Amino acid sequence: MLRRRFSFDLVPLIVSACLLSVSCKKNDATPEQQSRGKYENGFFIVNEGWFGHENGSVNFYAYGADTLQTRVFQVENPGKDLGVTTEYATIHNGKLYLVSKQGAFVAADAYTLKETNRLDKLPADGRAFLGLDENTALLSTANGIYLFNLKTFTPGSTLSTVTGQVGDMAKANGSIYISQSSGVSILDANSYALQKKYAGLIQGFTVAKDGAIWTTNSKGLVRFNTQTLDTTQVILPFTSYGSWFAWNALSPVASSKEAALFMAKVASYGAGGNTIYKYTEGDINSVQNPFITVPNGQSFYGAALRYDAKKNQLVVTTVLTGYQENHLLFYDATTGTLLKDVTYNGYYFPALPIFNK
Question: Among candidates 286, 281, 348, which has minimal Cα distance to 317?
């Protein structure tokens, strides 16, 4: 029987091939599958903090958990704190921007929560943040809007077209929508020139499945056509209220699965209440009765609700009388079924949930 002679010249090639095979197996996960940090698989809840006792904080809910990880910003950044009354946050280009009414304005990595930037004091009481690109953002305050340099992390001049108390902001189709205590101003996204102004619009914004922007007035929902900047009204069976007396990020929220919006019926001062309405676009009958009533004894706090596109769920923040007992409610956004009620204690005063994308 003939035997083939083995050549030792092939050994390096065989070893290299084996190593390459192992390497490929260990790294065959796509970038999307590789974890970007411990705070990827869940969402944040930004808290005002107990005014006069402690500054704002951030809690984290990991999907599937039965409780929250509390004050995770302080855990990841020992010795550092947020500002006083942390009322707003958003994620832009992989960073979580945390806006407080007084004190520090902070940016942190959205997946590790390690602080990346800090401004110890804003030029006026902080409200909201809108990232425009990698270099520039808008920062709304109780006295106008500041152009903000993200590279140097410093505020520049204010926009001459917007004055007074400003809240939520949104960008769509070359325009910037500005929520003010006097109504809504729409600006050109390049020149910041005033394009249109509406009085009597009282809450923040949400972007619907079709790209339209929605807000509210005292009669109900208001839809902006982002092409023409014109509006249409949807009358709700209750009076809508704003939160300008003690501003928070109150707004309707939109589904990414359906042509539908959700709105909490809050009390006159911008909090409280216990019912949520669902408007299916084109069907006025859909808002004649509440879609959800939260469990007995609970009432809304902060932004009241947000939509989790990953799970097609409504996440609702409530408290009991006395504010020490907090509830995080999860509802199926299609059926309104209560899926989970997570209870946690502490004087957090939840402002709003924030979801990583």
Answer: 348
